[in-house]
Amino acid sequence: LGALLSFLQSTLFRLEEGGTITVNSVKQANTSMFMSFSPGTLNALHIFTTEHHPLMAKGQGHSKEGFSLFSLLDRTTSKVGKNCLKEWMLKPLQDPKDIAARQDGVELFLRADFQRSVGTLLDQLPNIGPVDKILLRLSKCHTVPMDFIVLERTLSAALDICSTLNNDFLRVLDAQLESMQVDQGRQADADCVKQVEGYRAFVDGIVQRCYDTVMRDTQARIASIVDEPM
């Protein structure tokens, strides 16, 4: 842990005021959470396929994802989402409870009664930029003006996404749970309650990681000092 903190302090967190790093909790990673695949297995199952540029005389050139399971499933609209899906497929979960929780989350966004809210999310997701790369350039003081514009747009989109999750998803799910409490005795209703509770836990887990106040403050600071037209 000391080596990790030393590394972070000299890279990403070196500009933090006072040079301090606050550790809220330490959790040991469980290596048995995920399935382990060799590159040969991934290729044999066509999970990922790399397609090189056809002009081999000039070298392999730029490559892209070919026909694979990943390309069939990929409906993401942001680079962050694409990387997340790739991470999920590279490291599949093993615990049935974790798998069911992830399936609940995916299922929620496919429900017909939430499609209007999902449309709002899809409108904002393309505005999410490569924050990890921007933060890395910021830590090395190698930024370009566009980095601040992209970061401000990303924060604005993220705030709208958090608002949609809070107002359009959690509020509706809470109302559904409240209405189900009246007739909870039957087995079918108990199953429905459990399903909606799974949906709510998934969305609440996202909202809890949003740090709405910090994002709003950072977005306001950037917007106040950056003249985008210039």
The parts where pLDDT drops under 50 for at least 5 residues are none
Biggest beta sheet attributes: 2 strands, antiparallel
Across the major sheet, the strand order is 1-2
Which percent band covers the strand fraction?
A: under 5%
How much is the radius of gyration in Å? 22 Å
Report the strand count: 2
Strand/helix succession: HHEEHHHHHHHH
Distance between the termini: 44 Å
Tally of contiguous helical segments: 10
Structural class: mainly alpha
Mean pLDDT: 84
Overall geometric form: globular
Helix content: 55-70%
What does this structure look like?
- The protein has 230 residues and is mainly alpha-helical.
- Helix 5 (96-108) crosses helix 9, helix 6 (115-124) runs antiparallel to helix 8 (145-180) and helix 8 (145-180) packs antiparallel against helix 9.
- The model has no long low-confidence stretch (mean pLDDT 84).
- It is globular, with a radius of gyration of 22 Å.
- The chain has helices spanning 2-10, 39-44, 69-73, 79-90, 96-108, 115-124, 131-139, 145-180, 187-208, 212-225, and strands at residues 50-52, 63-65.
- The longest helix has 36 residues, at 145-180.
- It has 10 helices and 2 strands.
Secondary structure: elements and pairs:
Layout: H1 2-10, H2 39-44, E1 50-52, E2 63-65, H3 69-73, H4 79-90, H5 96-108, H6 115-124, H7 131-139, H8 145-180, H9 187-208, H10 212-225
Antiparallel strand pairs: 1-2
Helix pairs in contact: 5-9, 6-8, 8-9, 8-10
